Amino acid sequence: MQIPTDLATYTQWSGILTLVFLGLTLLSFVFKWGIRFRLVGATSFMGVITASIFALSLGLFTHTEIPGSVRYTLVYDNAGDKVVIVVPPTITESETAATLRQAAADIIPFGRAGTFGTQLTIRARTMLHPELGVSQPLYLGQATKLMSDSNAELDVRVFSDRFAQLPKSLPESNS
């Protein structure tokens, strides 16, 4: 079963349920039911829930999509000034730059530990396997940004000389 992640859908259904409770509350006052004051409380609570979900839908999820970026995996984050992401070994230089920009947009520095003037450093790496049973990390680039200034420019550096070490094609698995 697919659960919708769009908060507008939840706002709509919560609003409908609030109107249903409002109708029941009005009926309870017309027919003088014993639970009419409990229904006032339930209707009020549903109104608060509906307003809260609506407020969350206005700006909770803002995702910036950087064109040309590839999927990456976050493998190290000290919640301060250092982050390492893993990219596939088939990545190009332009994709590395775009992926570092995407990671910087995704990893918001607010609330990170660090002193004034500390730079957030995001490093992109891939894994090489020069021989069976041996893994060697290869750093392909890094992005740095001053954490204390939200408008600071992102400095992206791609280590072009290291792309020559990448395999030209991935080895096929013998399964």
From TrEMBL:
This is Ycf51 family protein. The chain crosses the membrane at residues 12-31, 38-61. Pfam families: DUF2518. Keywords: Membrane, Transmembrane, Transmembrane helix. It comes from Lusitaniella coriacea LEGE 07157. InterPro entries: Uncharacterised_Ycf51. It comes from the Bacteria.
